[in-house]
Amino acid sequence: MIVMKFGGSSVESANALERVAGIIGRYADRKPVVVVSAMGKTTNKLLAIGADAAAGRSEQVQHALEELKQYHLDESRPVVRSEDIPELEREVNGLFVKLGAELNEVAAAGEMGPRHIDAVSSFGERLSSCILTLVLKRFGMNSEHIDSRDVIITDGRHTQALPLFNKTYALLAEKVAPLASDGKVVVMGGFIASTTDGITTTLGRGGSDFTASIVGAGIGAEEIQIWTDVDGMLTCDPRILSGGHRVKVISFAEAAELAYFGAKVLHPYTVMPAIEKNIPVLILNSRRPDQEGTRIISETVPCTNPVKSIACKSNITVMNIRSARMLMAYGFLRKIFDVFDRYRTAVDVVATSEVSVSLTVDSCEHVEAIAEELRQIAEVSIEKDQAIICLVGERMSSTPGIAARVFGSLRDINVRMISQGASSLNLTLVVDSTDLGDAIQRLHDEFFSELDPAVFESCSRMQAV
Q1: What is the tens place of the pLDDT at every residue in 72-87?
Q2: What integer pLDDT is reported at residue 463 of this predicted model?
Q3: Mean pLDDT computed over every residue of the chain
Q4: Among the four residues 84, 164, 391, 445, which has the most C-beta atoms within 10 Å?
Q5: What is the pLDDT of residue 214?
Q6: Which domains, and CATH codes, for the chain?
Q7: What is 286-352 written as a DSSP string?
C-alpha cells in the first residue's frame, strides 16, 4: 500500500482532476490511498465567506456561496460519468446546505471563533474528496470515500489540533487498510479531523501533508507520495531565487530542518509519523509526473556538498532583551520564556550573552503584549521586517571553514543574529528583509557552483527535460 497526497493546485480544475486520475491509475497495482486538499483557493474563499457572515453581510455570503458551489460543479461535471452526475450534484448541494447552516451559526455569534473556523474551512476537503472519488470511477477505478473525520482523531485545540495517534492508528488499521488491501482506491480529505466527541478540527494550514503521513503510518504504507506543483525540494526557495537545483535524495533530519525554516514544499510536521515508522516520503510534481522528484529517507545521505539546501523565512520580528540582572543570575531565561509560553508564541532563533537575549518570532500577533510584560524585568527593543536564512546539510558540522565561506559571501551584508550548534545540521542567520534576495543569491553561488550528481540534478538539466 502507498499513500498519494495531492495539493489544491493539483485538483483545481477539470483538466487537473483528469491529470490526477491518470497519475493514480499508474499506481493502481500498489494499492493507493489518496489524500486530497481543497480545490484551488477554496479554503481562502471559505474563510472570507465566514468573515462576511460574522460581519452580517448576508448578500455577499449568498453570492459567494453560489459562486463557489458553481465552481465545484463546473469543474467536476466534465470528468464524472454521466450516470454519476446526479450523485455528484446531490453530494455537492448537500454539503453546501450544511455549510450554510454553519455560516448561520457564525452570523448569529457575530464572530468567527476557532471552532467556527475549523467547521467552515473543513468543507473544502469534504467537497474535493467526494468529487475525486466520483472522478476516479470514470477512469475505471473502484474508489471509495472515507470521511477523514471518522478516522483522524485529535485533541480539542482548534485550528492546530494534534492527533491522538493511538486512537487514530487503530481506526486507520480497522477502516482504511482493509479497503486498500481489497483493491479499492480510498479517497480521503486532508487537513480535517475530529475530536473524540465528533467535533470537527483541523491540523493547521498545510495540514494535508500531515494527514498523508499519519495515514501512511496508520496503514503501514511502503511509501508516502506528496504530489505538488514543483519538481521536488530545491537548493533554494524558488520564490526568492530562480535557478535552484533539484535535490534527488535527502534525509528525514535535513528535510525536517528545511520544512521548519520555511521550505513551503513540505509541511513541518509531515515527517514526524514517517520518521517513527521509517516510511520514505517522495515529493513529486503532478504537472510533470515523469520527473523523479525528491526522495526523503531515514538514512544519512552521503554528499560531497556540505550544504543540501537553503531555506528562509521572511516577515520575522527580532526581540532584543537586555538586563544587567541577568549577569550571574539563574532563572532569568525561564522568566523570559514563561511570557512567550503564556502567549503561545513560538521562538525560532535564540542568541544569548551575559546580559542580553535576542530571539526571533514569526508571529506578530502578541509581540507588543509580550514586550510590555518583559519590560517589567528588562529593556526590550523590537526590530521588524527581518528574515531568517537557514543552511542545512548533514556534513556542515564536520566540514571546516563553513562559517568562513558564509560570512565571506556576506561580507558587506549586516547579519543581525547567528545560531550554530543547537543543531549539527544547520547554520542560521538573521538579516534585514531587504537583503534577503541578495544574500540567498550569494550563498547559493558559493555552495552550489559544483554539484554532487548522486544527490542533485542541475537546473539546466531540469529545464531541458
Answers
A1: 999 999 999 999 999 9
A2: 56
A3: 92
A4: 391
A5: 96
A6: 2-229 (3.40.1160.10), 309-464 (3.30.2130.10)
A7: TTSTTS--EEEESS----SSS--EEEEEEEEEEEEEE-GGGTT-SSHHHHHHHHHHHTT-----EEE
